[in-house]
Amino acid sequence: MKQKPDSSKQAIALIKFFSEEEHYLSFKRGCSLLRTPHFYRKHEDIGRGDKNESCVGYWDKGLGDTMPTIEVDGQRIDSKDSESILIYPAHEQKDAWLQSWSVLGPHNCFEQSLERMLEEFGTYFVLLPAKKIRAYVKLLSKASDSQVRYGFVQYSSNPLDRSLTVKDISFSYQKEFRFYVGECRKDEIESKTLQLKGLGKMLLEAASLKLTSPSGEIRYCSLGRKEVVTA
């Protein structure tokens, strides 16, 4: 079953986390990094890595996987000599360079994920107001000379639903919003770095974050600190 974004569609802002202060400061100066789905398929860090990123399934002997048994129209395909196998939706013959943010929306329960996000993605963060999303897209498009798509990620427990815009439901705590730049091969591993002039002016200056749940519980965190204070 596919889980669609709820009230988070009324995004107040997007938030992006960084594990290193250097990367955080670099982004504020306009250095914007984009990864490919295949990078994340091979990435093993919890939260960031996803073997099933933008695909039905991925198996790689280099990652310790056992090759699956594959049958097409009743005919078994011998895959024992394959180093890796990638199965993806027929309608997505290409991938794209990705950049992931999370949605801060009215009662989309992101506050429940705050500690986990800080743990998995880092304690430095930037905020992009929702009203600046289209302006940010224009910066990406101009710097990359490519078409840029963007939108909320959906989540599903059905492997056949997985694609560039649908992730496994186990990642739903991330409340993800993505920017898709251009097109790339399914096995593209190289990242793309763009210089975005004027990016810093679009971002909110925030040294701390305060999130309130529907029940009135308040959670605070500060830039560069992993602790979350609940009131």
Characterization of the model:
The protein has helices spanning 21-28, 37-42, 114-121, 133-144, 199-202, and strands spanning 2-3, 13-18, 31-34, 57-60, 70-72, 75-77, 84-87, 95-104, 124-129, 148-152, 154-156, 166-168, 176-184, 192-195, 208-212, 218-222, 229-230. It contains 5 helices and 17 strands. With 231 residues, the chain is an alpha+beta fold. It is globular and about 60 Å long. It has one domain (2-55, 89-230). The longest helix is centred in the middle third of the chain and has 12 residues, at 133-144. A hairpin with a 6-residue loop joins strand 16 and strand 17. It has a 5-stranded antiparallel beta sheet with strand order 9-2-8-13-10, sandwiched between helices.
Structure at a glance:
By secondary structure, the protein is of the alpha+beta class.
List the helices and strands and how they pair.
Elements: E1 2-3, E2 13-18, H1 21-28, E3 31-34, H2 37-42, E4 57-60, E5 70-72, E6 75-77, E7 84-87, E8 95-104, H3 114-121, E9 124-129, H4 133-144, E10 148-152, E11 154-156, E12 166-168, E13 176-184, E14 192-195, H5 199-202, E15 208-212, E16 218-222, E17 229-230
Parallel strand pairs: 11-12
Antiparallel strand pairs: 1-11, 2-8, 2-9, 3-14, 4-7, 5-6, 8-13, 10-13, 15-16, 16-17
